[in-house]
């Protein structure tokens, strides 16, 4: 009522007649305008992230759209609308060094940031349920921009699973300089040796029993399990493969990464390659 008659009467006079403090009118007016504008944006960004973004990344996306909003306010809006991120913080246990029994050294040596695409690719496996049976997923991650360049799924934790992940790589395999993994038999075998030898890819293995040597792969799978594997029930391997391809496409092209300055892997790659031209 006050707002609709503000052009005819003073706000002070109307507040006095209605016995409403002026401060109450101004507070409610400002709060409604602000909340009504930001809340739909927060919900939209959260849903577009597949329920994965927290306050930090939503703040970045809002800033891109021209809204400067504090993380505290975003958190309040998320709580009011029941928006709970899938993402959780990874928990690490302390590790005591053990001797490296293999002749193959850790060539990567925890140098997880590279200046060139495909200078170092890391990989690991994880498991998930498909129709009440365990199946496995292999991912190949480029350390340059954290892009998933190869992936595969299957019922067995073996070398052919890794081989099929290499087959999905779109670039020439001889563009890859270094391939780093843990010491699992699915990576350290004749089939994978032949792939690496054929395309002149140097091998690197983590120290025995030390997940920190392959920290990026471990972190990627933590995200993968939280955002993808734990949220769906897969009736068949075919369904898993279709949904996995969709997730990898979203991960590479849309999902923003804090380690990449809140860019997607593809955006980061395009931005940094332009600098070198």
State the secondary-structure class.
Answer: alpha/beta
Instruction: Please state the CA-atom Rg, rounded to the nearest Å.
Output: 25 Å
Characterize the overall form: elongated
Strand content: 5-15%
Distance between the termini: 61 Å
The averaged pLDDT comes out at 86
Please count the helical segments. Answer: 9
Number of strands: 5
**Largest beta sheet, briefly?**
5 strands, mixed
State the strand order across the main sheet: 3-2-1-4-5
SSE sequence, one letter per element? HHHHEEEHEHEHHH
What does this structure look like?
The protein has 277 residues and is an alpha/beta fold. It has nine helices and five strands. It has a five-stranded mixed sheet, with helices on both faces. Helix 3 crosses helix 4. The longest helix has 27 residues.
Task: Draw up the topology in text.
Blueprint: H1 11-18, H2 22-48, H3 55-64, H4 71-80, E1 121-130, E2 133-142, E3 147-154, H5 159-167, E4 178-181, H6 190-198, E5 202-205, H7 215-227, H8 237-253, H9 265-276
Parallel strand pairs: 1-4, 4-5
Antiparallel strand pairs: 1-2, 2-3
Short structural summary:
The chain has nine helices and five strands. It is α/β, with parallel strands linked by helices. A hairpin with a 4-residue loop joins strand 2 and strand 3.
């Amino acid at each position: 009522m006050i707002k609709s008659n503000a052009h005819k009467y003073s706000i002070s006079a109307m507040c006095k007649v209605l016995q409403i403090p002026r401060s109450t009118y101004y507070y409610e007016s400002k709060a409604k305008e602000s909340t009504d504008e930001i809340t739909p944006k927060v919900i939209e960004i959260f849903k577009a992230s597949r329920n994965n973004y927290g306050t930090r990344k939503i703040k970045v996306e809002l800033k891109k759209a021209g809204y400067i909003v504090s993380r505290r306010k975003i958190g309040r809006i998320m709580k009011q609308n029941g928006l709970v991120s899938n993402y959780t913080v990874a928990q690490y246990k302390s590790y005591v060094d053990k001797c490296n029994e293999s002749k193959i050294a850790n060539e990567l040596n925890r140098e997880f940031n590279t200046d060139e695409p495909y200078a170092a690719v890391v990989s690991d496996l994880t498991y998930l349920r498909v129709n009440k049976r365990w199946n496995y997923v292999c991912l190949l991650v480029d350390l340059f921009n954290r892009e998933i360049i190869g992936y595969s799924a299957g019922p067995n934790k073996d070398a052919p699973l890794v081989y099929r992940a290499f087959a999905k790589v779109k670039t020439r395999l001889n563009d890859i300089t270094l391939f780093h993994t843990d010491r699992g038999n699915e990576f350290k075998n004749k089939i994978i040796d032949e792939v690496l030898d054929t395309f002149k890819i140097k091998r690197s293995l983590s120290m025995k029993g030390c997940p920190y040597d392959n920290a990026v792969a471990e972190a990627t799978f933590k995200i993968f399990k939280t955002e993808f594997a734990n949220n769906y029930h897969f009736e068949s391997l075919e369904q898993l493969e279709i949904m996995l391809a969709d997730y990898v496409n979203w991960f590479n092209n849309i999902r923003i990464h804090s380690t990449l300055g809140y860019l997607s892997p593809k955006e980061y790659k395009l931005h940094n390659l332009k600098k070198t031209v």
